[in-house]
Amino acid sequence: MTWRNSLRQDRETLKRLEPKARIQFIWDYYRLPIIAAAVGLALLITAVGLNLGRGEVAMYAVFVNTDQTGLEPDAALLDAVLEEAGTDMGKKHIDITANLYLGQDGTYDGETIMVLAALFGISDLDLFAADEAVFRRYADQNAFADLSKLIEPELLGEHERDLYYYDTEDGQRVLGGIVLHPGSVLHRAGYYHADVVIGAAINGENLDEAVRFIRALLATG
Hints:
Layout: H1 3-16, H2 19-51, E1 57-64, H3 76-84, E2 93-100, H4 109-121, E3 127-130, H5 132-139, H6 153-157, E4 163-167, E5 173-180, H7 185-188, E6 196-200, H8 207-220
Parallel strand pairs: 1-2, 1-3
Antiparallel strand pairs: 3-6, 4-5, 5-6
């Protein structure tokens, strides 16, 4: 039976059913398309909402489990790093999301996981930083680019003790991030006080900028 004949038959069936039975029939036979459409719409709404009012963005950065000190972080320090690294910023800026928390009190973990899934999924995340436990969670999902293939070996060799490697399910060794200690630009800008790991999202829209930023951190560290 073709899909057109199937739809025609379903329409005839719906005409014979009571209203409540019609809803149940539609849900039973069209559940997967309905769910898929709802998920797609949610991702679209998230993408539109995130981009409203952002202005010109050079790179999207997401920092998870930042320190809640009550002081406003100085994002301009990060813009300066990217500009000094060679990016023509002009009126551009780094769009930073720093209000996501995961694995602390557990209250909003479900919401945070959904937001991060959307950001990684729609390539609206280029640079990612978090404590090691959270970073590992997404490293296990192969979310990060292999920096050993994107940054000069000589520069990486100067920071060998701070290189964050992990093994993929197929046994590949990946340099997914760099460990940043107090004194880094993220710390000086007021986002963190303890060690964090920073990496570049493998599907990021601005992967080159994210890698350039990380390279600049290594060069000045």
